[in-house]
Fold these 2 entries.
Entry 1:
Amino acid sequence: MRYVAAYLLAALGGNGNPEAADIKKILSSVGIEADDTRLSKVISELKGKNVSDVIATGYSKLASMPAGGAVAVASSGGPSTGGAAAPAAGQ
């Protein structure tokens, strides 16, 4: 993820076609040593693509994914399952 973020930073900063040295410079500025294998993979996947189009595609993919987990629904009828019923008053 850090390689993609650095690539996007370079592209949004005006570099339309960031190269490995550009991304390494961004990563090293925050103390991250770049892995050449991962870096070359990110560059090859994003090379020549419009950053705005890549972001828009990502948004549409995120929108189609279910968010969160199962939601517990409280039932409105019937006694609770918290234990035995309380004794009636006056007994």
Entry 2:
Amino acid sequence: MNVSMLSRSALRAASSVSRTAIPITARTLASVATSQVAPSTPESKKPRIKKFQVYRWNPDQPEKKPYMQEYELDLNQTGPMVLDALIRMKNEIDPTLTFRRSCREGICGSCAMNIEGTNTLACLCRIDVDTSKPSKIYPLPHTYVVKDLVPDLTQFYKQYKSIKPYLQRKDPPTPMKENLQSVADRKKLDGLYECILCACCSTSCPSYWWNSSEYLGPAVLMQSYRWIADSRDQFKEERKAALDNEMSLYRCHTIMNCAKTCPKGLNPGLAIAQIKKELAFGS
């Protein structure tokens, strides 16, 4: 009996010790861990308020002239690109603000506009972090405006359609066989096929401003040369003949605004020069 009672007493004592020892140990470890970590007192970032002046015009209010509307955003809460700022303006400040955008990766060309005096893509253009001056945003210059920052590109796409921008063959297609070309011939298309038809180059060209009804402009002419240079296309002479007139091609005066403003780093002026060279000296 004494042995049994002793063992039960010992068990109760041991459990009592274990119940009191565990919390003490946890508190001790917690205090040690806290003492080893620097106190976290994050300082709130000072607001960086940036002003944006955006071109506004509403076709539903034709009596009201176009004007510049000012918006203010904290750059600490805005993404780095101008498109990020425009999306915040529309979502958080003014849902009536209208602009085009799609891929946000510089692939679709939808968000082409004039930012700080340069035609570019809003999704690739970084915000000027100098908060002492406003950033000015306009639609593409010398185009009819649908609304706000949305240009009417009907004429631009009509001209693009006119060059027949697709592969044309005189030989009937061979069943189950591709139209092959050499590595060297494929390389000739580099710097041409990457064009995304954003119209930044054409709307920066003074010759296109003055003669947009007849002059095809840098973007369309570069796409025309893309098919002239393609070894698989069999309508090369017909394509060149369609351009061999006073207005379609020769209104280019190598001002080179097109190459300077292209957001993809292409050189439409070089492609136009190549077409002129082939018309003058033959391929």
